Amino acid sequence: MPTKVKRCLYIGLGGTGMKSILYTKKMFIDTYGEVPPMIGFIGIDTDDGEYKGSLKLKNGEDMTLAPSEKLKILVEEPREIYNVNRDKFSWVPDKNLGGLTYMTNGAGQLRSNGRFAFIVNYVDIRKKIDDVLNAITNARIIDNNKYELLNTVTEIHMVFSMSGGTGSGTFLNMAYLLRDLAPKCKITGYAVLPGVFKAMSRAGMANVSANTYGAIVDLDYLMHMGIGSEPFKLEYLRDSENYDVHIRPFNSFIFIDNKNENLDAFTNITDLAEMISLALVTASGELSTASASVSDNLEKYIDAGEMDIENKKAWASGMGICEIVYDGNTLSDIYSIKASKNIIERLLNSCVDTDLIVDSWIDSAEVNIRENNGNDNVIDYLWNKVPKYELNVSDYGNPKPEVDINLNSNAVDSQKINDKVTALTFKVRKELRKLIVKHINTECGVSTAKNILDGIRAQVDIFMGEMQTEKDEFLDREPAYVAQVETSIQDLRTADSKFFKKKSTLDGLADDLAESVRTLAQCRIEIARRNAAIAVFNDVQAAVAETRADLILIENSLRAVYAELTKDLASTTTRGGRSSQTFQIDLSRDVAGSIGVDASKIQIEDFVKNLVHDGKLYSFKGLSHAEIKTDILQYAQNLLTARQYRGTTIDDIIDSLPQDKFDRIIDLAIGKSKPLFRYSYKGHNPNTTPRNSFYIGVPDKTASRLYKDDYFKHRLEGTMDVDFSNTGVTDKIIFYRQIGVVPPYTLVGIKDYEDEHIECRFDNFFDQNLERRYDREGFSIYPVRPSEDDLLEFWVKGFIFGLIRNTDKGYEFRCEEHGMAIKG
Fold this sequence. Notes:
The chain is α/β, with parallel strands linked by helices. It folds into four domains: 3-288 and 749-777, Rossmann fold, CATH 3.40.50; 337-543, no CATH class; 658-726, no CATH class; 787-824, no CATH class. Helices cover 50% and strands 13% of the residues. The strands form four sheets. Strands 1, 2, 5, 6, 7, 10, 11, 12, 13, 14 and 15 form an eleven-stranded mixed β-sheet that branches. Strand 13 (691-698), helix 23 (711-715) and strand 14 form a beta-alpha-beta unit. The protein is elongated and about 175 Å long.
């Protein structure tokens, strides 16, 4: 079933914005394995180093924003540009001209600098946005069977800090550029307030509160605009690029403080960036079935005006979010890695007595190479030790030619014995490989195979030693045997040359000669047999050495893979969830530390059976570490326990909790999801208090323990709207809490921002001309109650110009905002 996702563009302005969308991209990839094609990112900053931040994905890979997803807006000669185009920069506050310096390493905490950089780089910014919008609205996206568009509306989520120069100075121009490029899009702003930056106590924080005040005033003025409002011109370098502002810049707007109503403080911008990223991903559709859109609700409240205070529009809102997760996939990976390490340990451990295996192999009919303890199996196979031909001397007077012929006839045929050596060594090598392949593919296989080879080598050393000793002995005897033959020849010739000779004497001497020749021939055969046997044993030793080298290679590879798995285990154990637990409750963390491996449930023979390579484990000698690691991990991942971890859902875990622990976890989630938004009406009485809503995303609400019997509603204090939706995501439950809307003057801290604005030596508004308009119109961020004279004037003019009429039921008036005309 396709995953339902809204078409969303995420824009990060300045360092805070870019950090937030980087975490957002990470969360998309961790959730879906990729960024869905209808999701786009743009990060914009004035830092010459671009934004090189990277994050670790759950799979351990590094991730960053791609070049197509970021843009640096640098200005190297701002003064020269200003001097040439003064008429286009009338908006730059006079007090800020001195700060108009090189913008290659940030905007210097001046909002006007950020806007200046936006205008100078307007063409590039416009093209970048146009390109990304075209990419995420490409018609071919609907052909992707992995995802389904929830609707045809493009939602744009813009994240920035109101405290610096880049984000705070560019967000309004960016909003209206988006209005121009995509008039039908919905734009939601997410603005980080200065509290977190002050808590971090870093350098360059002097203007953070003053900039925030200026940005809120600017935004408040523009959020009051509507049909009939006097247009305000945003000026660019080319007249054709100018934009007349007559509508609100944002459909909805969310402030993010660093404290909630309980004054729980968050002192690191990374915590807030992670929280924002969770909200941004949620906005892409996980809770869309609970309401048309979370931002739609805020826009509805703004339009309704029920929460306005006097003349001040209520448009400011806050949100909080928390997720309860159970990462069964990570737990499965942890188990799989531990199981893989167990397999390697058991392959490398020693647990088999190999002496009997070695003896049995040496003495087997297929090998049979024993040459000790009275056994002459090799030399007997290679050549018969008995001379083939007996010497029968016919010429007693000249027996030497016949002796030479006999010795030559009985000599070992080098070609034939070499053929025998080749045949035997081939057979032994074949049997050796079979032996090693058989035993390496068993429990303790690598160690067993190495010990077998060591045992064979030790015995063959003995055999070779015996062959060499016997050969030397025969070589030592050979000269005496040669001398004996020569003496026997001479004795026979001498006896035959005598005048008086006895046949019996000659026959006896001939027999003696024949025996001497036979002894010599046998001696030479024995020497040849042992030379051949030594050649056989040399080859056996070479085969053993080669095979042992293969085993050492396999062993080293397994040890290297084991070391990699140890590192993987450390990173996998800590990779689950987010870098902090500030807005997350990870129910798998405690489990991760207690995962063990029951060796009895892992059968080495079964592991070997699953290997597809010829020779099974022995084939590891030709594989890379990565290939070996993959083979072992794939087997481990299919073990029953690994599959059980993978198949366990968040609902399974929630359902297994005892009631008291379940209550504690839900209370903790409620606390963590408190909006980072504090407000006070400062004495004014609202007609309607802000809407406080919970949107709960669960895999299947009908099966959810939170939904059954209205458990979650009963767990809340006070009255809140609660909507559940089915996300289909089985590893998490999302608690999204939204509060709004209120006029921005109600923000806790606004007076401090104003005081620092008054004391600031720079102008914190983004447009000098607009600031003059504030003064001319008497605009204030605070509510002003009209006097009775003003009210009377409004009524009179209303009747004169036909804007108000009396009916039987009361008074009706024209509503410019909703476009409802009075019918005559």
